[in-house]
Amino acid sequence: MAQKKPKFYVVWKGRATGVFDSWDDCQRQTAGFDGALFKSFDSKASALKAFKDKPHAHIGQGTKPVARQGKLAGLVGDPIQDSLVVDAAWNTASGDMEYQGIYLATKQKLFLKGPYADGTNNIGEFLAIVHALALLHQKESTIPVYSDSRTAISWVKKKRANTKLEETARNAELFALLDRAENWLQTHTFTNPVLKWETTVWGENPADFGRK
Fold first, then answer.
1. Residues 95, 87: Cα–Cα separation, whole Å
2. How far lies 130's CA from each of 124, 175, 189, in Å?
3. TM segments (predicted)?
């Protein structure tokens, strides 16, 4: 069997720019990054040369671009295997919520929390992301975190859970966790990309509880 030729990836606009020698490294810099500009090349020499040029001199010219992402563009390629994926489940009958996180490459469950009374799915997704970030921070790991909740991802970016759920005696524990999560975001820095799990492209979130 013929050996697959290596590819080199130029990132002109992303979390970090430069020439990368793997798709995973390229995607770490571009996945979920609004307006990312990047392209694959067949040799390192051509990639290094292209990096010195303006991206539009290459994107749409010659070899096919890997991707150009905008606000409405989906993620391209496969999800990064060296990542942590989270999801939450909310019981519509009882109102109970729980969340969990797995390591994507091995599907190993890293944490499972709940059930918590009178929660919401978005709160669960938010807590799951922050739990994952805190765990990775403790381990000094910068791998990405995937969630399929755009709402929860936006809450994490704003460092505040913008929930309309009212606090009651039954969900007081949950609101204490929200306060703790918001405080963690406001007092810690992290470089882990928090990315959208693209269900329409990749299928169901691997951390899904399978109760749909």
1. 16
2. 10, 14, 12
3. none
Secondary element (H or E) of residue 116 = strand 108-116
Write the single-letter amino acid at 37: L
Task: Tell me the residue type at 19.
Answer: V
Residues 167-203: tens digit of each pLDDT: 999 999 999 999 999 999 999 999 999 999 988 777 7
Structure tokens at 179: 């306060």
Q: What does the block give as tokens for 139?
A: 């381990």
Amino acid identity, residue 97?
M
What angle, 0 to 180 degrees and rounded to 10, lies between the N-to-C axes of helices 121-138 and 150-158? 60
Whether 112 shows a pLDDT value over 60: the answer reads yes
DSSP-derived pairing of the beta strands 145-147 and 194-196: parallel
Write down the pTM of the prediction: 0.67
CA-based nearest residue to 29, from 18, 42, 40:
18
CB-CB contact of 57 with 37 (8 Å):
no
